[in-house]
Amino acid sequence: MTTKKRFNRIKIVLIEHEKTNIWLSQQVGVSKAAVSKWCTNDNQPTVETLFKIAEVLEVDVCELLVNAKK
């Protein structure tokens, strides 16, 4: 059985930008539970929502998908 990563890039970028799940949920117009599920990889946002997340965080959408700062 494989183990999933506990946090994904959305959560890491939120931390880097000193933003909370609640803030993101308000900016994107989704529930706090939806953001929580994205941040723990229980669910993933749609592509459209992913672009909206990138816009409100003022990052390139690629930064939400892969760690370019290795």
Give me the number of helical elements.
4
Class based on secondary structure composition and strand pairing: mainly alpha
CATH class: Mainly Alpha
State the helicity in percent bands. 40-55%
What's the helix-strand series? HHHH
Count of distinct structural domains: 1
The CATH architecture term is: Orthogonal Bundle
Q: Proportion of β residues?
A: under 5%
Return residue spans where pLDDT drops below 50 for at least 5 consecutive residues: none
CATH superfamily: lambda repressor-like DNA-binding domains
Ends distance: 28 Å
Evaluate the radius of gyration.
11 Å
Oligomer: single chain
Label the overall shape: globular
CATH domain fold name: 434 Repressor (Amino-terminal Domain)
For the largest beta-sheet, the strand count, sense and barrel status come to:
none
The chain-level mean pLDDT equals 89
Q: Can you walk me through this structure?
A:
With 70 residues, the protein is mainly alpha-helical. It is 50% helix and 0% strand. Helix 2 crosses helix 3 (32-39). The chain has one domain (9-64): 434 Repressor (Amino-terminal Domain) (Orthogonal Bundle), CATH 1.10.260.40. The protein has helices at residues 9-16, 21-28, 32-39, 47-57. The longest helix is centred in the C-terminal third of the chain and has 11 residues, at 47-57. The chain starts with 8 loop residues before the first helix and ends in a 13-residue tail after the last helix.
